Each structure stands twice: as C-alpha cells, then as structure tokens.
Amino acid sequence: MIKEKKRVALISVFAAIVLTGSKLIIGLLTGSLGILSEALHSGLDLVAAVITYISVSISDKPADRNHNYGHGKIENLSALVETILLLITCAWIIYEAVSRLVLGKTHIEVNIWSYIVVISSIIIDINRSRMLSKAAKKHNSQALEADALHFSTDIWSSAVVLFGLICANFGFYFADSVAALGVAIIVLFVSYQLGKRSIDVLLDTAPQNTINIVEQILATFSEVKKYHSLKVRTGGADTFIKFNIHLDPDLSLRQVHELCDKIENTLKALISRSEIYIHAEPQDLSHTLTEENETL
Questions:
Q1: Residue-level pLDDT at 244
Q2: 238-247 sheet: strands from edge to edge
Q3: What are the residue ranges in the chain where pLDDT is below 70?
C-alpha cells in the first residue's frame, strides 16, 4: 500500500517538473502573464507534490511510543503548507495582473508553442488528477486527495489561460491579464477548501459524516439501551472513534464482549482504517424506570 502511494506521488512530482519547466520557458519567450502565472502555479505545485511525496512516505508508519496515534497528521500538515503556497501564488498573480492592466503593459507574443504548452498541461493534469483521486480513495489518503483537488483546478486555470491566449491572438491583449486574475480566483477558492479541511483535522474537529454513521449503526443494535460520550477525530487516513454504551446488566461478560465485537466490525466495514474504543456499562434499572414513567 505504501509503495503504491509513493509511486503515485512520485509520478506527480515528475509531471510537475515537466510542466513547470515548459511553462516557464514559453512564458518568458512570449511575455504572457497568463502562462507565467501558470508557471509559478506549477512551480508551487512541484513543491506541494514533493511535500506530498514526503508526507505519504511518513504517514503510514505505525504508532510508536512518541506518536501513540500514528503519524497520519503529517498528511494534513502538508495540505496546510500547500494552502499557504497557493495563497502566495494568488498574491503574486493578482499584483502582476492589476499592474499590467493599470499601466497598460499587456502586449504579448503568441505563437504555436503557447498553445502546445497550455493544451499539454491540461491533458497531463487530467490524467494526473484522475490517478491521484483513484489512489486517494483506495487508500483514504488526505494528502493525495488534496493533490488531486489541487491539480483538478489546474485544468480549469489552464483553460482560462488558453482563453486569454486566443483573445490575445486577435489583438485583445488585456485578456491575458484578465485570464491571470481568473486563475487567481480559482486558486483562492481551492486554497479556502484545502485550508479549512486541513485546519479542521489538525484541530480535531469532529467529522459530522462519520458521527452520523456511528449513530445510525448504534441505532440498529437493540441491545444498546443508550449511548453517550461519542467522540471522533481523524489523523491522515486514520479515524479514531470512542463512545460509551449502556447494556442490560444481566448480560454475561462474554455476551458483552461479542456484542462490542459486532459493533466494531460493522463500523470498520463502513469506515476504513478506523480504530474504535467502546466502553460498555450496565444500564441502571431504576434510571430506566424513571425515564419510562416520565414518558408516560
């Protein structure tokens, strides 16, 4: 599993190197801010891809004495770093685009290579995004998922740049700067999504979808009189769940153990790479009678 995640991440690194180099060369030759902004974006993509490669290499290491819950949060940390890099990209693109529009320095040289590098970028990003997304779902990797989301937006940003080049080819040179602003808006949107998700995980924000699943499963077990203290947190690809359940006090220790195993196996079948802690306690009969009387 680790080898496959590292292989996918490494392919992404090589793709980022090719795209960054080609966009930078063509951007400098043509003077296209749209392509140069994409070159900078791809350059930060390269940094992000390297960070992702390092994080997936570390995240699946087993828990140890100093990291009792494993090393999964390194993936979330890498996603946060990627968000910061994206925000830096946005700041530079917006500054350059506005400066060119205000000063009127929008003339660029458009040639066949401009179209080749942008169209090639779109094709590569489509394949890279699909590959990363597939691996992310298979291994429940948030780092790979962040990369997949990142590169899927590269497709749209490259499409915006392509539109700017077409307009510039007909003399509407300002469209290149406008296209660059379009790239910045797309990147800002992605940055918000990545940043919010990574910060939520790092702050142990409870994932509502997982909580709903646990509550629905517990409701299917008639032996569970009630439950409380449900807590869920995630770290990388791992999910940690703990809760208390109240059971019939006449159940034997073996019956309680078997029931807890059933609940645990049911949850693990729905929530991949989950670690579940269940505290079973006897239902207080007098408390139950009081609740029933109050209901009546």
A1: 94
A2: 226-235, 238-247, 274-282
A3: 1-5, 32-34, 37-38, 41, 60, 104-111, 140, 142, 150, 153, 173, 176, 285-296
Angstrom CA distances, 166 to 41, 171, 173, 180, 211, stand at 21, 9, 9, 14, 49
Q: State the residue range of the domain holding 22.
A: 2-202
List the CATH number of the domain containing 29.
1.20.1510.10
Query: Angle at the Cα of 3 (from 198 to 59), degrees rounded to 5?
Result: 30
At residue 279, the pLDDT reads: 93
Residue 221, number of CB atoms within 10 A of its CB: 15
Tally of domains in the chain: 2
Instruction: Among 202, 217, 247, identify where a domain stops.
Output: 202
In which residue are the tokens 């290149």 written?
Answer: 176
DSSP assignment letter at 93: H
Q: Which of 147, 170, 202 is the last residue of a domain?
A: 202
